[in-house]
C-alpha cells in the first residue's frame, strides 16, 4: 500500500542517518545519559541550543511534536485559575481539540477564509476574539494542516503583540522547515514573548515520523512548564543520535523538498484545470484539493485499485476536499493520472 494520507515520508532517510545507526555504540544502552549531571537534558537539546542560538534551558524534547502539544495543552488548561479555553484554527489538525477534551478543556475555533487559491488566517477577527474571550491558550499552526498556508514571522509578531499577556501561545511548526530556511526568528520571538512555545518535529521535513522525536522552544516565562515536561532520566539514546544526524543532513532533505515542489506544480497544472477541481497553494509536504463530491466513491475505488491511500476530508465546510501527501515522483504521477481518469480526462 502507498500511504499518502498522513503526511509521512516516502523517500529514503539521509545516508548520514543510516551511518549514525550503523555506528551507534550499543554499550550506551546499558546506561542512562550522564549529561543530566551537567544540568542538560540530552545531547540533542545541546545540539539544538547551538544550532538555534538558544539557551539549552529553553529547549524541550518530546516523543514527537504530539507529545509536547499534549503536555502544553494539559498543563496550561489545568492551571488553578480554571480558565480552560483554547482557540484553534477552524480548519486544523483534529488532535488539538482531542487533547483539550482529555482535560475537559473548551475549544473555540477562529476563522480562516479562502482568498483565491489559498487560505488565510482572519487576523482581525482573531485579535477581536483574543480580547473578548481572553483564552488560556492561543494555538497557531504554521503551515497549517490541512489548508497548507503559513504565517510569516512578522505576522506572528504583530499578532502576539496584541494578545493578552495572560494567554499562552503555542505555535505548531511541524511543517515549518518547508517554508523557513532562516530560523533566527525563533530566538527573536521567544526573547520577546515570555509565554510562547514553538513546537517542531523530525517527522515531516526530516522524514523520521517513526523515530518519534519532537522539540520545542520556550519563552522565559515558561520555566515551570519546561521543568514539568523534562524527563529526569533522559531520552532515547538511539533517537537522539539519529536526530542529530538528520539535522546535520539538512541539504539532503532540502533537495527532497525541492523535488516535491516540482510535483506540487504538476498537481496545479494538471488537476487545477479539471472541471470542478481546485488546487490550493500549500507550503508543506501535502496539497489540498477541492473536488466534485459525486466523484468521491469512484475516486476512492480507483485509488484503492492502484493500492493508494489519500485523505478524504470529512470535517464541516471542508468535506468536499482531498488532502494528498506529496510522495515520490512516480507515486505522484499515479495519483494525478488516476484522478484525471476518474474525472474523464
Ligand atoms: C499539524 C501537525 N502537527 C504535529 C504533528 C505531529 O507529528 P509528530 O508527533 O510525529 O511530531 C502532525 C502529524 O501529522 C501534524 O500534522
Characterization of the model:
The protein folds into 2 domains: 2-10 and 251-342, Aspartate Aminotransferase, domain 1; 15-248, Aspartate Aminotransferase, domain 2. It has a 7-stranded mixed β-sheet, sandwiched between helices. It has helices at 15-22, 43-52, 65-76, 95-101, 123-133, 153-162, 184-192, 223-229, 237-248, 250-270, 296-305, 329-342; strands at 2-4, 59-62, 85-89, 106-110, 112-115, 118-121, 137-141, 168-172, 196-201, 214-218, 278-279, 286-290, 308-312, 321-325. By secondary structure, the protein is of the alpha/beta class. The longest helix has 21 residues, at 250-270. Bound molecules: pyridoxal-5'-phosphate (PLP). Pyridoxal-5'-phosphate (PLP) binds next to helix 3.
Task: Name the descriptors.
alpha/beta; Aspartate Aminotransferase, domain 2; binds pyridoxal-5'-phosphate; 38% helix; five-stranded mixed beta sheet; seven-stranded mixed beta sheet; 12 helices; Aspartate Aminotransferase, domain 1; 2 domains; 14 strands; 345 residues
Short description:
The chain has 345 residues and is α/β, with parallel strands linked by helices. It is built from 12 helices and 14 strands.
Layout of helices and strands:
Layout: E1 2-4, H1 15-22, H2 43-52, E2 59-62, H3 65-76, E3 85-89, H4 95-101, E4 106-110, E5 112-115, E6 118-121, H5 123-133, E7 137-141, H6 153-162, E8 168-172, H7 184-192, E9 196-201, E10 214-218, H8 223-229, H9 237-248, H10 250-270, E11 278-279, E12 286-290, H11 296-305, E13 308-312, E14 321-325, H12 329-342
Parallel strand pairs: 1-13, 3-4, 3-7, 7-8, 8-9
Antiparallel strand pairs: 2-10, 5-6, 9-10, 11-12, 12-14, 13-14
The protein binds pyridoxal-5'-phosphate.
